[in-house]
């Protein structure tokens, strides 16, 4: 018996040792026949089982009382726990094996938190087109304050982001640790762009969050919209990741508006969460693919409608700025600043070559003379940064695999020539972004 089990036994729960059948038995019987008002049935049964307790029922899906730090719990003897065992795969196959987790459909627990003792019944059932999940929380006495304090603490804990980024997909928000890990890999040193341009972008982003009082003094709403635009493969995404990494404010990342409830419901949920999390960064990647004729009006109403978007910095990216409605692309109050990420200039292509030269300086098997920098820059006109990266990476892979015994210079020029053919073929260009 665990220490918590012993503590609950030694305390003597008096009327907690209720008479009659366990609730789990009533639960099973209830779902074995025609039914109506499941929550009413459970509430009534618990009030009869624990007549000297206060009871609060909550339907918050995000509530994780059993996972609240400092909370200890033990199953209530005699109550049957109904659960599904689910397999949680690893984020990547090379990370090893997955794990089994328990998805509780019905459970009863004694819970201790901050020297207060509670009884928790957790139930989930099918209803209509979806499912309902409710927590029934009891505490001895008529005072509901301890229960409300427990719910408030668990709810606030659920809102916290711990090495996670909020991602919206399929109509709901999920906490994504994997995306957070990818963001941590981004560094401005790896973003080969004009230094003045990088400084302007960073100053614009960080300056917004430092300027709340300035906005108020000017009598304007403390919100901002920024668009990163330009052909694919030129640093929009890595710059975005570097911004997210460097910000002390939460980032909310939107993958799609599509959901079973419709795109308008998704847009509403996105901005509702952003307002809750503000000050924050709301990322809308590939804005031209998110906005369409059916959702444009609703989106614009959320951006600059009656509700306050105070503290929200919207950063949108697009490879096709020309496809955006003028209401988005041309009206400053929606997207105040636009940053163009064009194909790299001759000087930027030299700087990118120096970036790789520095990375390879300790590799004795790769000769990268300074003379090669200008040659590569000359040969790669109209290349995006993604094409430049592919030229270097594919060359190094060929050399590392032992398939080629030519010099790095020879292989690199061959790869550039091959990529040039793809660039001249519009279908080939789509394969590298």
From TrEMBL:
GO terms, biological process: ribosome biogenesis
Highest taxon above the source species: Eukaryota
Signal peptide, first to last residue: none
Gene Ontology annotations for the cellular component aspect, listed alphabetically: nucleus
Residue intervals of the AAA+ ATPase domain: 222-345
InterPro entries named in the record: AAA+_ATPase, AAA_ATPase_domain, ATPase_AAA_core, P-loop_NTPase
CDD domains attached to this UniProt entry: RecA-like_protease
GO terms, molecular function: ATP binding; ATP hydrolysis activity; preribosome binding; RNA binding
The protein's name: AAA+ ATPase domain-containing protein
Organism: Botryobasidium botryosum (strain FD-172 SS1)
